[in-house]
Structures are given as C-alpha cells and as structure tokens.
Amino acid sequence: MKDTWILPALTMEIGAGRVFYLPKARKEQKAEQVELLTEKLRKAKVALLTDYRGLTVTQLQDLRGKLRTGDVEYRVIKNTLARRAAEAAGVSALQSELEGPVAIAFGYDDLSLPSKLINDWVRTTRLKLDVKGGLVEGRVFTQDQVKQLADLPSREALIAQLMGTLQSPVGQLVGIMQTPLQQLLGVLNAYKTKLEAA
To answer: What is the CATH code for 28-151?
Structure first.
C-alpha cells in the first residue's frame, strides 16, 4: 500500500467483484471546494488573509497547531477558487486582496483571537508572516485595521471593563447616601454616651 493515492473518487463495479476507483472530474472537485469556502466565509466572524511565502511545511503545521488552540482554522487556498467563493458569499470587495500566495485563517468566535494568535506565533518564532487584510463580520479590513484588531482586549475583558465602569458610579452614590447616615449615627452615639455619663 506504499504507492496508494487517496483521491476523491467515483466507484465503479465491474463483474467478478472487482471495484475500480475513478477520480472525480476536476470541475466537480473545484465546485465542491468553492462551496466549502463560501460556507466558511459566511460562517466565520473573521477571515484573515496571510502571505505565507518563505515558510516551510513544518512551520505552517506549527502555525496551524497554534491557531487550533483557539479554534481557528488555517487553509492555503487557490486564489481563483477564493475569488469565486468571495463572490458567492457576497463579499466581492475581498477579491482585490486575493493576490499572490494566500492562506486564510478562519475564526468563528472571538474577533481578535486569530490576529492575536498569529502575532504571538510571529513573535515567538521570529518568522515573517504578513497579514494582507481580512474580512471581519462581513466588512473588508485593511492590513492596518487587522493590526488594530489584534490590540483589542478579548470580549470577556471588554465586558468586565464595562461592568466596572457601570458599577463605579453606583458605588459612589451608595457611599454618598450612607455618609450622612453614618455621621448622624455617630452624633447620636456621642449624645447617648454623654447622657449615660451624666
């Protein structure tokens, strides 16, 4: 089995129990890939386009492993298929970014997580991986906008900051309202001790 190729295939049975596998037509394979990419572009909250030139297969596998920790999918894609998928997904503005070797990082949960993970990987490995731009919630982002996205805190951190900001004025109001009562209580306690002493 060392010379076996695994290809998507059509099965054809010919007498005496023999089974032959015929490769699918290339057009069918490409149509399936475009359909899959279209679905991923529609489902993903974030799709970052990267230029992977200069990276070895081992380095790309390492990057995929790093991205998988955050449920981010990384795929090398042919530009013609990606252009067709972008048009089918209704984001034809993305087509201008699809030039040269392109790999796409699909993020389905946190908006800033894919760009943060890519930046962390670049920082730790000291390799060059250019982010060309991307698609964030249906809008095309430039390279600079994607970099700004990486600097954003996570959704949970933003919610915690918002809650802290909202609680601060309420806490101050409660403190202000309690202060006169505490002062009155202090005056009454002082009067009580004066009366008991007399």
So the answer is: 3.30.70.1730
